[in-house]
Amino acid sequence: MTLTVRPISAAVHLDFVQAQRSVSFLQTPSWAHVKTEWRSESLGWYDDQWLVGAGLVLHRPVPRLERFTLAYLPEGPVIDWTGKLDEWLRPLAMYLKANGAFAIRLGPPVITDTWTAAQVKEGIADPNVTRLPQMPSVPDPVGTRVTEQLRAAGWLPQNPEDGFGTGHPQYNFELPLNGSEDDVLRGMNQQWRRNIKKAAKEGVELVVGDDLKAFHDLYVHTAERDHFTPRPLRYFETMFAALRTEDRIRLYLAYHQGELVAGAIMVRVGTQAWYAYGASATAKREVRGSNACQWAMIRDAIAAGCDVYSLRGITPTLHADDPHVGLIQFKVGTGGQAVRYVGEWDLPLRPLVYRAFDAYMTQRERRRHSS
Q1: pLDDT over 70 at 260, yes or no
Q2: Domain range spanning residue 28?
Q3: Keyword set for this entry (predicted)?
Q4: pTM, 2 dp
């Protein structure tokens, strides 16, 4: 097989995405309109005249060297990861280098390891276990091969110890949607089932709406309480405007006696749905608005024929004193599974420029942590 890579239109890219069972929403052409600070292009892999792969590339220029870019394919590209990767990635590198890229960063949508909810719960309870990789996992042979092939071809792993970095998290928590609503509900732990019933008993009302300002106000409150930097309202307005063109995004708002107590955003592509963002009030936590939002999104994902509902990133830390453990415990209650992906990898195409960019990013990160 001899593949070539060339630009494709957003319409051709969208047709290709629609023909797949599932694709990350970060690899849909509409995502380019969300990341307005990046230059973007859609690329296609052709076997003779047949389109067999596609990818959304986000270009980030180098400070003071704007003619060179980091070419980023988040959770992509959409290619056959089970075969010989050199046949797919070599023509990508040739095209991007010829068009000014100093490096490629990609995140294969391929799982390497899986842990059950019960294992994660046991790890948190065990004082001798501090990290998820210490627990026995079910390895995925495809993920193992992809990792080996990337390393052999000179790609450099960009996976931080805590699972979070400048890119997208390597560790995620996912809920397989096997069977009916009742089947999924039975797979949840007792606390989750009790909280869902509690929300209904307390009269929590779920609305699928478009009041982004109300959601954002609650999201900023959540950020202040939980000590993270919130995105501006404009980002969510842009995200909804872009993803609604392909009918991929919904806003869920939970009210109790007319007061907004929780909110969440779900994105869906094909047979996979993602919990993208969430917010909750500090008051009235006992009415369980967050559980009500999650259950509404899970039910809608089941109704849409999804195979997987992703609760997105977790850290691999299982130490009981770690501040992230509470989030992991919340997600574990759904009865799903923790998964480790191959992670993000860089291929330097112009080593001198890549080293300069790496030094710049390191200095910026140090300044951010010291401020």
Answers
A1: yes
A2: 3-107+344-370
A3: Acyltransferase, Cell shape, Cell wall biogenesis/degradation, Peptidoglycan synthesis, Transferase
A4: 0.93
